[in-house]
Amino acid sequence: MSQTEMYSISELARHFEITTRTIRYYEEIGLLTPHRSEGGQRLFSKKEKARLQLVFRGKKYGFSLDEIRDMIQLFDQDPSGRQQLERTIQYGKEKIEEVSSRIEDLIQIRSEMEQYIVDFQKKLSELERDKDEYA
Amino acid sequence: MSQTEMYSISELARHFEITTRTIRYYEEIGLLTPHRSEGGQRLFSKKEKARLQLVFRGKKYGFSLDEIRDMIQLFDQDPSGRQQLERTIQYGKEKIEEVSSRIEDLIQIRSEMEQYIVDFQKKLSELERDKDEYA
DNA sequence: CTTGAACTTGACGTTAACGTTAATGGTAAA
DNA sequence: TTTACCATTAACGTTAACGTCAAGTTCAAG
């Protein structure tokens, strides 16, 4: 039991719809640390798969791979010392603040875009009204 | 009156804490279209300044300069024809959906991070408790 | 045991988003 | 008008995040 199923590099690539090159690159810069088979081929555990998932989410929302690595190391190393725990909590709270700030900005952007749409729709309905008056 | 105050390239750069190179680059790729002085030097109006602001907000949240240019052109050209208005509204709604989706994802990320923090804090307080038991 | 697909490590290529430098021209103050 | 600074274009340099290719290795199927 608990044979912790492993994925090959191409299985993982197919699953996330990326190339194997990307995965190797992520290993190069320290985002992943897969195990190896006897022959030296990469074997990815579920944990590595989850990491990769994290990377993609981070990427999609403006974080650089460097920042992502920091955050992954933060939440991945399972700190046990008291000092380490406190530092992690502190750093984590800061990161949460960053994310919150991004959320607020995006909400701001959205509401501005919505205002544009409202204005355009008003213009459009005025056009329709004018057309009717000629009829 | 209404002397529509103008900014030089370095004034603008200082204001946004970027280099003049960046501003010239943004003009190169069509994000800005400043006026020129007699001698050929760039003069930026308030409108251009506002555009730049938009660019930075877009950048900060994962949009490429290409996407940003599309969005700026969209909301900047003040469409007047009925067809054009309808297209703009349609495209705008799509963009709003994209932004909304990003917001939701970020909220998801945040709540996961918060969960980590909660767990770490629990661990920390257990450590404190154990320490007390020894006292 | 062979074959072919999948894998490995280099190493060089590419694109976006600027940085940097050079050679030159414009401008405001003394 | 000269000084000092700010501006211009053109061109080459840089970094992140991969793409692509070559030359060889491992693995699973028959």
From TrEMBL, chains A, B:
The keyword DNA-binding applies. Residues 6-74 form the HTH merR-type domain. GO terms for molecular function: DNA binding; DNA-binding transcription factor activity. Keywords: DNA-binding. SUPFAM superfamilies: Putative DNA-binding domain (SSF46955). The keyword DNA-binding applies. This is MerR family DNA-binding transcriptional regulator. It comes from Oceanobacillus jordanicus. The lineage of its organism: Bacteria, Bacillati, Bacillota, Bacilli, Bacillales.
